[in-house]
Give the backbone structure.
Amino acid sequence: MAAVMTSDQDDIDRLAIEMTECKHMGMTVLNPDVNESFVEFAVVPNEKKIRFGMAAVKGVGVAAVEEILRARDEGKFTSIEDFAKRVSTSRVNKKAYEALIKTGAFDGFGTRSDLLFNLEDILSFASKLQKEALSGQTDLFGDLGGGSGLMPSIELKTAPVRYTEKEQLMWERELLGLYISAHPLDNFDAFFEEQTIPLHSVTPKIDGQLVTIGGLVTTLRSIVTKSGSKMAFVGLEDKTGDGEVIVFPKLYEQLGDNLRADVVLKVTGKISARDREGNMGDEAKM
């Protein structure tokens, strides 16, 4: 399954379906981790788990991952300080650090809030130490100046503001394309399974059928018709894919302010895959 997910890592819809399949197979897909992930998706040894590949994180290129793996060949990282000492800042830059923190790859070394708050200090520490090592002033695995002093260290300060679980899930969605550590719809699994069809099954094959779907509102676009009435195009997402629901004026009048991003909806309506001339298209909407 890890190989299939690697081949589909640029196809978020396919990945979402494969993650659902993993769940049905009793397998868990985990966030990337600097001590366990590789370039591609990989099975965790002796466990029914798959680790997200670090190269699948937006802002983290293959060269950065290869540098992390090179340093990890010498032994697993024991702290964010150890990582900063051993991984070149010329290969793993601020953008890569930030993306890896936000997607949970450093969760073993501190909270995402604290690591982001201290990121500038971490990078300054790493850059200074590595420059001194290149000039011969510092041995990265020894003392300063030939052995009499102590190695510099990082003291992580507590972030004054803690990021919420919702904010952290949105980072995962932005940088991985999917929610990994949790999903806003986790509490609705049984409800949706009993009362709706999954969004990935909404295709032109069921054109004209009356169905019930459910999911999280991700986008909302309202327009004013020629008659002056309001209608909306609502982007909906579940754990298998996404779709669009057209809310016509009469229903829009009833729903109005209740239509907003991040609301969970259950919707019943007819599926249409035809254009205004009645020709069958490639996409289906409700």
In short: The chain has ten helices and nine strands. Residues 215 and 237 are 5 Å apart (CA to CA). Confidence is low (pLDDT under 50) at residues 143-149.
